[in-house]
Design brief:
- The structure holds 2 protein chains of 2 kinds.
- By secondary structure, chain A is of the alpha+beta class.
- Chain A has helices at residues 12-18, 33-38, 74-79, 84-90, 96-101, 104-110, 117-123, 137-140, 208-216, 241-259, and strands at 5-7, 24-27, 46-49, 59-62, 65-69, 127-130, 134-136, 141-143, 146-147, 155-161, 165-172, 179-188, 191-197, 205-206.
- Chain A folds into 3 domains: 5-49, Uridine Diphospho-n-acetylenolpyruvylglucosamine Reductase, domain 2; 56-161, Uridine Diphospho-n-acetylenolpyruvylglucosamine Reductase, domain 3; 165-259, CO dehydrogenase flavoprotein, C-terminal domain (Enolase-like, domain 1, 2-Layer Sandwich).
- Chain A has 10 helices and 14 strands.
- In chain A, the strands form 4 sheets. In chain A, strands 4-5-10-6-7 form a 5-stranded antiparallel beta sheet.
- The longest helix of chain A is centred in the last third of the chain and has 19 residues, at 241-259.
- Chain B is of the alpha+beta class.
- Chain B folds into 2 domains: 3-77, Beta-grasp domain (Ubiquitin-like (UB roll)); 87-150, [2Fe-2S]-binding domain (DNA polymerase, domain 1, Orthogonal Bundle).
- Chain B has helices at residues 23-30, 87-94, 104-117, 123-129, 141-150; strands at 3-8, 11-16, 49-52, 55-58, 71-73.
- In chain B, a hairpin with a 2-residue loop joins strand 1 (3-8) and strand 2.
Chain lengths: 260, 161
């Protein structure tokens, strides 16, 4: 790791001030950022830790929404029972020690194209709340490792509308435990959402064709004839674009079947 | 340089560290507690697992400055002051849960975290919880058996594989 300055503010206002320095980068659980720093793939002049800020911690139920503080670790999300599918998703990220450090805000700010939380946020139509504004998930994910966040903008909480029924089906890459392909399916009173992670070169995306088919008939059969083009899919040593495109259909059907 | 203060195995510990100093470096190099191992240094293997405020973490993937004010437990804190092994350590000895021993500190610390939240885990739950702890000697069978035994369960039914 290159050397950097380190600050650990205890309030959001102090964190925002510390990040106004253009060399500064926020640090949440660090389960991606610290390995990245070790590989010298990033060299921030200063890291501003977000883990000492009580305003960013905790889970609360607010009407039909589940609001999760951005610095809440995966293990705590896994332990809540207001949104069981989200708990199940969080319980299968990484391993137990990673889940004790990694945070939902960190995952969404990083927007890894194979991460699980982006699928949950987009598939639930969540709202990403920052120190400045509220961003709908549909406007938030802007490409691989890219989001609508401005420089120095901090996610403060993520608000999930709890669906009538939902499921997440993840085909796990066994070494990294990231999703080779993951499909998140959720049914709400006003529609069905299908979000896919791990597959596209553009990062997480909504499979609108499947959403339309499921709105008419919420069953695995309704999406069995649908196919996606492998040309825009991630192709690497673990699988070709066509393989991933095929898996999207398989995992979506599994998620629909699991949602019941 | 940031000054950090924490409690390690019940005793106060402090020092000046660089921002980039990892918790495992502080534990091993500043405090001389070399029972916590660095295996892969890439968050995969779990040899560096310690408890921070009661939760298992990979100390190679946490900055020392992030543990300021925390309660940290390492493998050195597991046995009693008179050297009597913790029941998990004793079970590892009784069931031959180690060969070279490199992964063992992390295995024991992960096992302690598991049993604290789930006192009587099934074999599948033990294996699932050890997902982030890698042993390269001998496989996991006797490690799982030791953890099941430490939880007070009969391990006679677990077949040797």
């Amino acid at each position: 790791m290159y050397a950097f300055e380190f600050e650990r503010p205890s309030t959001l206002a102090d964190a925002v001030a510390a990040l106004s320095d253009g060399e500064a980068q926020p640090l949440s659980g660090g389960q991606t950022l610290i390995p990245t720093l070790k590989q010298r793939l990033a060299s921030p002049g200063k890291l501003v830790s977000l883990t000492g800020i009580s305003e960013l911690q905790g889970i609360r139920v607010d009407g039909g929404n589940l609001s999760i503080g951005a610095a809440t670790p995966h293990a705590q999300v896994a332990a809540q029972d207001h949104y069981p599918v989200l708990a199940h998703l969080a319980a299968n990220i990484g391993d137990p020690a990673v889940r004790n450090r990694g945070t939902i805000g960190g995952s969404l700010a990083n927007n890894d194209p194979s991460a699980c939380y982006p699928a949950a946020a987009l598939g639930s139509g969540a709202t990403i709340v920052t120190n400045k504004r509220e961003i709908a998930a549909d406007d938030y994910f802007t490409g691989m490792f890219d989001t609508a966040l401005d420089e120095g903008e901090i996610i403060t909480e993520v608000r999930f509308p709890v669906p009538q029924r939902a499921a997440y089906a993840k085909f796990e890459q066994p070494a990294s435990r990231f999703a080779l392909v993951g499909a998140f399916v959720a049914q709400y009173a006003d529609g069905v959402r299908v979000a896919v992670t791990g597959a596209s070169n553009e990062g997480v995306f909504r499979w609108t064709e499947a959403e339309k088919a499921l709105l008419a008939n919420f069953s695995a059969d309704a999406v069995s004839g649908l196919t996606l083009d492998g040309a825009g899919m991630i192709a690497d040593v673990h699988g070709s674009g066509d393989y991933r495109a095929h898996l999207v259909g398989v995992m979506t059907r599994r998620a629909v079947a699991a949602a019941g | 340089m940031p000054k950090v203060s924490m409690t390690v195995n019940g005793k106060p510990a402090s020092g000046e560290v660089e921002g980039r100093t990892l918790l495992v470096e502080f534990i091993r190099e500043n405090l001389g507690l070399t029972g916590t191992h660095v295996g892969c240094d890439t968050s995969q293997c779990g040899a560096c697992v310690v408890h921070v405020d009661g939760r298992a973490v990979k100390s190679c993937t946490m900055l020392a400055a992030e543990a300021d004010g925390a309660q940290v437990s390492t493998i050195e804190g597991m046995a009693a002051a008179d050297g009597t092994l913790n029941p998990i350590q004793q079970a590892f000895q009784d069931h031959h849960g180690l060969q070279c021993g490199f992964c063992t500190p992390g295995m024991v610390m992960s096992a302690a975290a598991l049993l604290a939240e789930n006192p009587r885990p099934s074999e599948a739950e033990v294996r699932d919880y050890l997902e982030g702890n890698i042993c390269r000697c001998t496989g996991y069978h006797n490690i799982v058996k030791a953890i099941m035994a430490a939880s007070g369960q009969d391990v006679g039914q677990i077949a040797a594989e």
